Amino acid sequence: MKLTLTTTAMALALSTVSLPAWADMGAAKKFLASEIGDLTTLSPADQEKEMQWFIDAAKPYQGMEIHVVSESLTTHKYESEVLAPAFTAITGIKVVHDIIQEGDVVEKIQTQMQTGENIYDAYINDSDFIGTHWRYGQVRDLTDWMAGEGKDVTDPMLDLKDFIGLSFTTAPDGKLYQMPDQQFANLYWFRYDWFSDPKTQADFKAKYGYDLGVPVNWSAYEDIAQFFTGRDMSYIGGPAKVYGNMDYGKKDPSLGWRFTDAWLSMAGNGDKGLPNGKPVDEWGIKVDENSRPVGSCVARGGDTNGPAAVYAVQKYLDWLKNYAPPSAEGMTFGEAGPVPAQGEVAQQIFWYTAFTADMVKPGLPVVNADGTPKWRMAPSPHGVYWKDGMKLGYQDVGSWTLMKSTPVDRAKAAWLYAQFVTSKLVDVKKSHVGLTFIRESTIHDKSFTERAPMLGGLVEFYRSPARVQWTPTGTNVPDYPKLAQLWWQNIGDASSGAKTVQAAMDSLCADQEKVLGRIEKSGKQGDIGPKLAAEHDLAFWNADAVAKGNLAPQLKIAEEKEKPVTVNYDELIKSWQQ
C-alpha cells in the first residue's frame, strides 16, 4: 500500500502550478502520479478516460469561480485543501470549498431556502434533511437532473450503484435528492485487550455467570459497565481505576445529536423497517399511507414519549451517572470524544467511527507498540423493546445537495466538482485519509484489506451484512432544522434533573407537534406535509398498530432487565466473513 503526499504538501504543490489557459491532461497526470498513485480502483486506461471526460465537460465553465461548503470533518478538509486545487488545475474551474461548523452549514442552507439568494453553488448537507428537501421542493432532484438539465455534465463513469448510501438520500417518490460524499456509523467501542484477558474473563464469569464479550443487549452492557467501574486494571498495565461507560450530558446543542442520532431506535422505539421504521420512525414520528406526518406523541399514534423512548433516555441517564467519569455529566460531545483514548474507559455504547483516525495515533494508551489498536468496534447492543427488523443505530451521510435557487451554469460546474471528489478516481485515497466510506468498491479494495488490522474493526464492519442496520434520519421528519433543535432543550431538562424523563419526553413530543401543526397550517409542504391525527390513549394506538402488523407505540414491558447476552468478538468477525 502506498500512501503519498500529505494534504498540506499537496496543497502547496498545487498552489505553485499556474492555471493553464485551457486545462489539459498534463495537470491530470501530475495529480494522479503525485497524489493518487495506486490508491484507486480504476485501471490506468480508465483513469485517463475519466480525467479526459472531466476536462472536456468542464470547457464551457473554464474561468468560472464556484463556491461550495461543508462541515469540518477530516474528509472535507482533504477535499478543500487537496482535491479542490487539483480540480481547478485539471478543469480550469476555480473551486472555493469553505469549511465551517455543522450548525453554520444548516444556517446557510436554511437562509438560501428562505430567501432564494444563491449563497453557495452546492452544499455537502446531511442526508438527515431528506424529508425536508423532498417536502419543501427547493432542492434539485438528482434523478431528473442527471437525465435532463444536468445530463451533459453527468459522468458516464459515476456508477451510482457502487454507492452504499443511496437509499438514505432517496425520497418516497423514488427520486434521488442528494449524493453521498462521506459516511460514518455510530457503533459500540470496547477495550479488546481487557475483554480478552483470562483473569478479567474469569472474574466476570464468577460474578455474573456468563462470558464477558461484546454485549448483544443493554442488559449485558449494563452488567459490563458495573463490572469495570472502579476496577483496578493495573495487573495488565491499565489504570488503578477505570470506568465502564463514557458519555456526555451538558445541556448543549450537541446533546440533541446524542438522541436524534437514533438512540431511541437502539432501545426499540418505532417500527420495523430499513432504512427507517414505518409508519413510526426512530424519532417517534408517525406518517400515514401517503407519508404525511400525523403525530409525535403517543396520543396521536407516535412514539416520542412512549415506554420505549422513556426507557431509552432513563438508561442513558443511569449509565452516565453510575458508570462514567464524574466529569462526563458536564461535557459536550466535543469534550467527551477524546476521553476513551486516554485509557481509562472499558466500553462506550455510543461511539462514532469518525473518531477512528484519532484513536490509532502512536503513543496513545489505547495503541500497542506495533501500532495496532488495543480496542475494537462492534455492532451496538439493543434495548429490551428492540425487535428483529428494526434499525440498530445511526449513520451520518454528508451528501451533495444542489438548490433550485442556484443558477444552472453554476450548478453544473458545482456538480462536476461533486462528482470529481466522489469518483472512483479519488475515492480510495480520500477514504484512507478520512475513513468515511461511500463506495462498495473502495471498501473491498486490497489496500483496505492490508490496513484493516490497524483500524479496530472498521473495515470488517463495513464489509459485513450488519452494515445495513445503521442508517441516518429518514423521510418522516418534515423539517429537520426546526425539529432537531427541540431535542437538546427538552432532554437537557431530564439530564439536569429539572424534569422527570417522562415529563421531558411529553414536552418534546408536544413541541414537535406544534411545529408539525404550524407547517400544516402554512400549506408550504402541500399534500405531502403534516396532517395531525385525532387523539386517543396508548392502548388504542397500540391495538391499532398490532391490528395492522406494526409495533409502535409498544406497551410498557414490566421487567425491562432482560436476560443478558454477549458474543465473542473474534467469532462474530468470522461469522461475517463466512
Rg from alpha-carbon coordinates: 24 Å
CATH fold name of the domain at 7-175 and 398-451, please?
A: D-Maltodextrin-Binding Protein, domain 2
Distance between the termini: 25 Å
What value does the average pLDDT take? 94
Bin the helical content: 40-55%
CATH C-level name of the domain at 7-175 and 398-451: Alpha Beta
Residue share in β-strands = 5-15%
Using DSSP, what is the number of strands?
Answer: 12
Structural class: alpha/beta
Supply the CATH architecture of the domain at 7-175 and 398-451.
3-Layer(aba) Sandwich
Uncertain regions: pLDDT < 50 for 5+ in a row?
Answer: 1-22
Q: What name goes with the CATH superfamily of the domain at 7-175 and 398-451?
A: Periplasmic binding protein-like II
**Helix count, per DSSP?**
24
Structural shape? globular
Major sheet size, sense and barrel closure? 8 strands, mixed
